[in-house]
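Quick one: structure for this chain?
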Amino acid sequence: MEKLQIKKILEAALMAVDRPLTLVQLHRLFSREEETVTREEVSHALVDLQEEYATRGVSIVEVSSGFRVQIDQEVSPWISRLFDEKPPRYTRALLETLALVAYRQPITRSEIEDVRGVSVSTNIIKTLLEREWVRVVGHKEVPGRPAMYATTKEFLDYFNLRRIDELPPLSELTDLDSIATQLEMPIAAGTGEEQQESDGDGDNDVDNNLISAEISEDSEQLAGNITLH
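Got it. Here's what it folds into:
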């Protein structure tokens, strides 16, 4: 099969689905062809497509779960005007917690609290788990056997990363504004007092902050990684 035809099929497949496709899945598209199409040919065709899309308003990117077509970040501010939802905004408390999990995983809740100097709201952990950005990967062998958290493929996909080592290098987890900028996570406006979470009544206050951040499945499309399907 000619490369042009392979590219057309791959392009159509990536446009047709709403999830990333792995190289193996894309190669399976050609499993019934009389003329053998190798995985290398599929890989080379994907590279050609990525180069062709480099100057367009959409791009083909490789993330942890495979390849996908998405809106180019350069034009996403204009495309976002098609949607009623505002871009999701995150409290500094949630961002700090997520950053600590990402850079120091696996990590327990108490270890996060030791670094941050304040208790971690149950609702923050719940939100990160519900968004499938973090997951429990085990329990530390200490009294109480606390859960240990690590990031997921969904986390990598959301931030256009293939591997965790592609995170921006940071010697210290002190500049949260820099982390937010590099990961394209706008921080919700507020004071430092919002970070004084607790597992008591304070959870409701933090939860309200998260609700006001408008974190929803639909608003994911406005975070600079809109996937076409």
